[in-house]
Amino acid sequence: MGIAIIGAGFAGLCMAIKLKGAGYHDFVILEKAADLGGTWRDNTYPGCACDVPSPMYSFSFELNPGWSRMFSPQEEIRAYLRGCAEKYGVTPHLRFGVEVTGLEYDDERHVWRVSTNTGEPITANAVVSGIGALHIPSFPDIPGKFGGPAFHSARWDHSVDLAGKRVAVIGTGASAIQFVPRVAEVAAELRLFQRTPPWIQPKPDVVLSERAKRILRLPGAARTARNAIYWLLETRALGFTVDPRLMKAHRRMAERHLARQVADPALRAKLTPDYTIGCKRILLSDDYYPALTRDNVELVTDPVTEIRDHSVVDATGREHEVDVIVYGTGFKVADALSEQRIVGRNGRKIQEAWQDGAEAYLGITASGFPNLFFLLGPNTGLGHNSVVFMIESQVRYVVDCLRLLSRTGARALDVRPEVQRAYNERLRRRLDRLVWSDGGCTSWYLDERGRNSTIWPGFTFEYWTRTRRMRPSAYELLG
Ligand SMILES: Cc1cc2nc3c(=O)[nH]c(=O)nc-3n(C[C@H](O)[C@H](O)[C@H](O)COP(=O)(O)OP(=O)(O)OC[C@H]3O[C@@H](n4cnc5c(N)ncnc54)[C@H](O)[C@@H]3O)c2cc1C
């Protein structure tokens, strides 16, 4: 077998499409779930939508002038991905229900032995990991057991009717701010438990009318719209990456938004973050704050200390009687990659290689793990633009690496350790002085050591430039 792609989300599908385009047809996409879509298959909570405008949160080679809104809902993004898989002929390469449980490099044959839950032995010349960064639901460590229905927002239990129920929502992150307004509309009572308030800015969401869609179908129009959105979003990186003081305007916008939407000063105080804006992801919403001003909604800022059979207890000892608990507590992000069972050259485990934190060259290749490519790997996540842009840059780079192998007849390539080290030292120096490290917050961007192995600390066009052509001298060729 040629190439094994793990995961059928935006990343894995993009890889598959571009492999086919480059003439590589010997590949499989191993997907543990029963369908494609990744994030957009798993997150079915009410109100789920992207928070980067759809013309940018989509593939550059498959612009969709038919988006229904500026920020399209989950089901539409999922259908878009399905359409892409069919149109580009990658559907026959999909293998559902196959979970990759380990990867082991064979030093002699220069192949990867891929173990899966099905027990079927798979060997691949190259492996592309598109397992996603926001994939494994994270639950808070709260003692006690709940007697009623309780679920995570990424595993929404649609069999539970929330109408007329007393609902506890734990967490106020990117997902919660989307589903809280919907739940508040139907629940009898909603207790929202907040640890840290997010900074929230207005969401410029609009329905894209039939007229707008007709205009977007004119030659060049969808591309122009995408480019305009790209550069607008890219200006946000100035504050993130050049100088956090430039974030003042963002802060003022968020403060005005809060002041406009919440009249009660006590509630406003609870909703005002005490850390630098941008330190955690800036969220967009027009209906979250209004939902919190409803009579049936109470914002609780005292930490949750215990879960009982039919209640949630906060640090003041107050017991909140509820029928359902929804966890909007995000994902296990920073450690997801290093938890993989991956054994590279000379039997070296990825955990040993990454004992000081996950790192890779350009976030794509890790020294000692030849022909293993990460999509959205270490330090390639974004706080200001669409990750699909990063995925496409990485996919082009992987194809370039494969072409080098074809050209030279080598069996594998392994990034030189000194190249990886120098790259990551520069990255760390940049990250240390930026908002994620000294903005006064803890966030999913940081791992347990407080090290940022998730975010790309620059403009995305810089990343695009750096990955545009692979540098053969950065690699040792094997076999
Ligand atoms: C609710 C939500 C909204 C978001 N909105 C935005 C947005 O607006 N803009 C933005 O840029 N980003 C957004 N993101 C981030 C989003 O995750 C990425 O944009 C993108 O979907 C990631 O694609 P992916 O293919 O890398 O990962 P995923 O979509 O997570 O796909 C990974 C796939 O790999 C499979 N998989 C994992 N492990 C294995 C294994 N061991 N074996 C086999 N298969 C495996 C999974 O089942 C999954 O299908 C959002 C995330 C969430 C959760």
What keywords describe this structure?
alpha/beta, five-stranded parallel sheet, 14 helices, 2 domains, single chain, FAD/NAD(P)-binding domain, 479 residues, 31% helix
Q: What would the principal axes of the Cα set say about the shape?
A: globular
Unreliably modeled segments: none
The separation of the N and C termini measures 17 Å
CATH topology annotation of the largest domain: FAD/NAD(P)-binding domain
Strand order of the largest sheet: 3-2-1-7-19
Tally of distinct domains:
2
What is the helix fraction of residues, given as a range? Answer: 25-40%
Query: What is Rg?
Result: 23 Å
What's the CATH C level of the largest domain?
Alpha Beta
Looking at the overall shape, the CATH architecture of the largest domain is 3-Layer(bba) Sandwich
Query: Which compounds are bound in this model?
Result: flavin-adenine dinucleotide
SSE blueprint:
Blueprint lengths: L2 E4 L3 H12 L5 E5 L7 H4 L31 H14 L6 E3 L3 E7 L4 E6 L5 E3 L1 E4 L20 E3 L13 E5 L5 H11 L2 E5 L6 E2 L8 H7 L4 H22 L5 H14 L3 H6 L12 E2 L3 H5 L4 E4 L3 E5 L2 E4 L4 E3 L2 E4 L14 E2 L6 H4 L18 E3 L12 H22 L3 E4 L1 H16 L2 H4 L21 H8 L7 E4 L1
Parallel strand pairs: 1-2, 1-7, 2-3, 4-18, 7-19, 8-17, 9-10, 9-17, 10-13, 11-12
Antiparallel strand pairs: 4-5, 5-6, 14-15, 15-16, 20-21
Helix pairs in contact: 1-11, 11-14
